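Summary for the steering committee. The consortium agreed at its last meeting that each partner would contribute one worked example illustrating the joint modelling workflow. Our contribution is presented below. We chose a case with several input lines so that the handling of multiple components could be demonstrated. No manual editing was applied between input and output; the record is shown as generated.
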Amino acid sequence: MSSTPSTPVVTRFAPSPTGYLHIGGGRTALFNWLYARGRGGKFLLRIEDTDRERSTPEATAAILRGLTWLGLDWDDEVVSQFERRDRHAAVAHEMLVRGTAYKCFSTQEEIAAYRAAREAEGASYAVFLSPWRDADPASYPDGAPYVIRMMAPRTGETLIDDQVQGRVVIRNETLDDMIVLRSDGTPTYMLAVVVDDHDMGVTHVIRGDDHLNNAARQQMVYDAMGWDVPVWAHIPLIHGPDGKKLSKRHGATGVEDYQTMGYPAAGMRNYLTRLGWAHGDAEIFTTAEAMQMFDLSGIGRAPARLDFKKLENTCGHHMALADDAALLHELEAFLTAAQLPPLTDGQKVWMERALPVLKKSAKTFPELIEKASFLMIFRPVLPDLKAAEALDAVSRGILRSLTPRLQNASWTKEALELILNEVAAENGIGFGKLAAPLRAAIAGRTVTPSVYDMMLVLGREETVGRLGDALS
RNA sequence: GGCCCGUUCGUCUAUCGGUUAGGACACCUGGUUUUCAACCAGGUAAGAGGGGUUCGACUCCCCUACGGGCUGCCA
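What follows is the complete predicted structure of the assembly.
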């Protein structure tokens, strides 16, 4: 590896804008981001939009949104690969001058025929060997279209010294002279990535292991141009819960899907970091801690399966750990993203009071809202079937005796505790028998946070009001 | 087909030749308790199979099986 320890780290994420940000891509971006940020380096973003047929500005916007939601910020301007096509072409021609590439006039039909013939011979592999590789320029056909092919070594082997996969050896005879410039003058991906990574000063290429084989060919381009080869780190792809490659039939594959499902971003980052990477027994950590700990050697070599239960658990920890004000903001952002009605001013006040308690037991925003349902509803509260059952005649009588005492109580947990215990004792019932109808009257349902927490959040006026509604 | 990569509890993983193979999620049991959670304590559960190397293999090598990737004038 040519980059010395003193070289500042530069990583990049380079998605193709052909759809939303895939969860696997999100994790790749996260790894690159953590690696750079943990070392005071740069994290760059490049959009690989050279395929004009499939690239759309909407997809680019979706990718940036996904990264932003995940909390991954990038340095410098976003680079468009397409806009750099002239530079790519210039490099291809420079390779021609250097004698590390050549013009090939073979047509696609000729290439197909070549392969078919080799296969008919029973050849184990059929890399195309261009007849123009060693041709005399004098024999070039006039004005015929041509591609520029890299003059790859035909013998020996190429070594990829990969930080995750180890030393991977690829025999050069299994690699063909790949095309670097198409007959229409546009660069191919293999050329464009190398030129861009070099020009952008990328020192560490951390990407999916579907590129592991490509690395060998790309390394040849670096060599052909006399450029420093970056540090390689090819990480395994994420699989679905069934161990198969993650695809649409698994459901959520886009980063934004996870946002609308209500996972907090911090939990998502933690989970994604831990998926396929480990640092001893560290499980729950902040992003700052992740930056400290993250290293290439901790990345596993086997594809990891997505586990929603663990994702939820991890998110639960981060929900509980979250700063209240920040959590409220994220909750509001979630409501918007999920196209749910925003909080009213009154609900917001209650939510601020409820958050310190509710966040401890919720794993996702939908769950948080579910637990906060008692403050999302308006008077008069309509009890559901079970709540109505809890409000039988006897219970209503007891609540009736409770109400006046609440009107004069100081609104603290201790004072309320005293009153409720007294009322329960006076009626010769356990606290549970009192809490059930009280809960039903306040929340209209039988599963809620603690009655004290609800009363404290709602305040005296609302609590007494709801009791009155239920008893009238 | 060829080439490349991978395989430890159900899942994510620790281990980097010598451990009762550890942790986390999930699951089960118990505790706490005003409901549901949360929380606390405990428990079940793993080295794909077969050969080597070695005093000793989860760890190193080979084969097989299974999974994945690449094999484009896509990225």
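Residues 451-471 of chain A form the longest helix (21 residues). The two ends of chain A are 80 Å apart (CA to CA).
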